[in-house]
Design goal:
There is one protein chain. With about 120 residues, the protein is mainly β. Helix content is about 0%, strand content about 50%. It contains no helices and eleven strands. Strands 2, 4, 5, 6, 9, 10 and 11 form a seven-stranded mixed sheet that branches. A four-stranded antiparallel sheet has the order 1-3-8-7, with no helix packed on it. It starts with a strand and ends with a strand.
């Protein structure tokens, strides 16, 4: 079992920055693909950014160039640096862990990000 705990969410003005952290416990995440998902009110959960166990990254077009995902396997941690935030980035952000690289097996409880205009 992997337990994931997110932190770093909050209220920020448009154009501002936030850094989200996801700390894992119970098992090392070194073999897991890690992803940051977000779910806005009334919308489905969507993948914002992901990083493989080898460090390759992928981003949704809506966040490309503004968000950066990184991982520190020694600290069992994944971060999401979010810059140039927009009101449409407002959502609950979830950290997920995938063993097979396709389906996500473990989820955190989520952290709220609110961007005011």
């Amino acid at each position: 079992q992997v337990q994931l705990v997110e932190s770093g969410g909050g209220l920020v003005q448009a154009g501002g920055s936030l850094r989200l952290s996801c700390v894992a416990s119970g098992r090392t995440i070194i073999y897991y693909r890690m992803g940051w998902f977000r779910q806005a009110p009334g919308k489905e959960r969507e993948l914002a950014a992901a990083i493989t166990n080898g460090g390759s990254t992928a981003y949704d077009d809506s966040v490309k160039g503004r968000f950066t995902i990184s991982r520190d396997n020694a600290k069992n941690m994944v971060t999401l640096q979010m810059n140039s935030l927009k009101p449409e980035d407002t959502a609950v952000y979830y950290c997920g862990a995938s063993r097979n690289g396709l389906t996500y097996d473990y989820w955190g409880q989520g952290t709220q990000v609110t961007v005011s205009s």
